[in-house]
Amino acid sequence: MNKKFLSIAMISASCFFLSDVKAQDNLSFGVLGNVGHTWMSGDGENKFKPALGAGLRLVYSANANLGIGGDLKFSAEGARKEFNNGLTDVKVNLNYIRANPQLLYFFGEFGDAVRPKIFAGPSLGFLISGKTKSTTGNTTTEVDSKDNYNGFDFGALVGAGANFRVAPGKWLNLDLGYTHGFVDLTKSDNNTAYNRNLAVGIGLTWGIGKVKSQDIGK
């Protein structure tokens, strides 16, 4: 009796697993966070400044390898620069709402426990707040970053990573991404500055439905 029960249980579990692989969701939603280094091109010597971000992610898998998706997140960026051989220290804080539409390529097949990936796409940043602090000796001045920097940033995001299945329909996402800004951020005609950002991201996504390709755009 026990052997018969065990056999039925094993067959049922196998059927469940196979049906889960075949009918798994191809639309996933999740949360993400990132930490890294942010800097700006232009005058001055760049020093380390932490880049921090947190937000939401949505991905549609058109097939086993190709996906489209995007991140919407709060992103703390800017730069820390030294001028005049270190006599002047400038900390630029730029806080964005950043949208990153992406084209993704997943290696492997549906059902694999680990799915390496590469991704690329545009990056749009909308400046919402920030302060710029300049210190020379014992003198410190602070101004609103919006007084010196434009409110919109456009660039490109490229990266690579892997998704690790932690439970049926749930994936741990690990990413390394680089953002390269194409828009001069400064309002001054005397200098230029472009955003640069290198960050490690971690997130969790889970399936929320199965969408047919012909349904996209309806």
Concise structural overview:
By secondary structure, the chain is mainly β. The chain is built from one helix and eleven strands; from the N terminus they run αβββββββββββ.
Walk across the major sheet and give the strand order: 1-3-4-5-6-9-10-11
C-alpha-based Rg, rounded: 23 Å
Tell how many strands the DSSP assignment holds. 11
> Cα distance, first to last residue?
54 Å
Which strand-content bin applies to the residues? over 45%
Mean pLDDT rating: 88
What is the CATH class?
A: Mainly Beta
Major sheet summary line: 8 strands, antiparallel, barrel
**Proportion of residues in helical segments:** under 10%
What fold name stands as the CATH topology?
Porin
CATH architecture: Beta Barrel
Description:
Helix content is 10%, strand content 63%. It is mainly β and 218 residues long. The chain has a single domain, classed as Porin (Beta Barrel), CATH 2.40.160. Strands 1-3-4-5-6-9-10-11 form an eight-stranded antiparallel β-barrel. The protein starts with a helix and ends in a 9-residue tail after the last strand.
What's the helix and strand layout?
Elements: H1 2-22, E1 27-40, E2 45-47, E3 50-61, E4 66-83, E5 88-106, E6 114-129, E7 131-136, E8 139-144, E9 152-167, E10 170-181, E11 195-209
Features of this protein?
218 residues, mainly beta, Porin, eight-stranded antiparallel beta barrel, 1 helix, 11 strands, 10% helix, elongated
